[in-house]
Design brief:
single chain, 437 residues, alpha+beta, Heat Shock Protein 90, 2 domains, 12 helices, 68% helix
Amino acid sequence: MDGRDSVAGSESASAALVLRVLRVSLHVGFAVLLLVAVVRLLAAGVHGVAWLRLAVALCLAGVYLAGTVLEKRHSARPDRFNPGPYAGSWLAAVCLLWLLLVSGSADFVWLAFPLFFLQLHVLPRGPALAAIAASTLLVITALWFHNGGPAGNPPQLPMMLGPALGAGFAVVTGLAYRALYREAENQRLAAEELRSTRAELARSQRDAGTAAERTRLAREIHDTLAQGFSSIVLMGRSAEQALAAGDTETARSRLRTVQETAAANLAEARNFVRGLQSPELERSSLVHSLRRLCTQTETEAAARGAVLRCRLEIDGTRAELPIPYRTTLLRAAQASLANVVAHANAGTAVVTLSYLGTEVAMDIFDDGTGFDPSAVRARTDGSGYGLRALRDRVAALAGTLDVESAPAEGTVVAIRLPLEDLAPSAAGTGADRKEEQ
């Protein structure tokens, strides 16, 4: 819980405490006034119609108590019975029983003051003020009636002023109570909405993190392990065919490639667990890794019975690249050349790594059959994932990826990664401007 939650919680708790004190004071006042009236009724002697008044008083106490208890239970646990829709009927029953008592004894008129607060709390403001005015008039009339009014005595000023002042005080206090109640409710609802929003945000962040991690793992597995396993399967079949033909030297070479590829895949799998960069780049530079990749690409093509010449060209002054950039460029070359071997039926593939001052570029060209890039993006059968994953990698570094291809016209995959303050490495010499394998 942060500071805003604490402040909102303390304000809501303070308002709730004030409301609770006012509510308890109202109920206690009603009970005391009713008890005083009943005691005076008993002191005058219970006989005749007095028994009926006592029964009505007890009924009033029961109805009032039932309503307050139900309201308290619902406020403590909202899943319990909600008496809110019946509050108007409950107030009408209380007022009717009070009128019956007032008609018989002036001792019950003072119950009007807690009733003023109930009317303001239960009824809308307009009807509540009208009910208070009517109740005040009834109190004045009852006092005048029980003090000899029908005998011709006009109502005295204190008899009218007392109930009127009491009603005015009740209206002011009740409206303040009502405003405080609304404020407490607004704070409670705001606090609940804030907690709900924070919980929803936490769930969204957790889901987004899970989705991002799944995407990252899928991309890494596709660009490394899946291609490695494909190469192992291909080399294993080639070794089997060489053994069947009696060509032990070729079989030995293919098995050696299987071992190297399996070892590389094992290193990549361990790398996933550690969450580090490519182990290939831990052992050597990006240029050396790309050269080695070109050699592997030629070997895999030969295992398929194809002749593919793959070479690496370096343009510009070589600079030290951050690890995320080196990893992305190596993965891009791996994915692109794997597609060349599997789909392009090409005779030549060229990987060009260019250092252009404020950006580094890589172009992977092949003279194969080509394809329609829009068709790859539109596929819904799960294929074409490598290109989508490559776009995600490049976009994560604020780079751009363009694919230029058409049927029978070859393919160029062009990657641009923006860099600033590239420091030329000690290896950056004029001989690096044009380097081929």
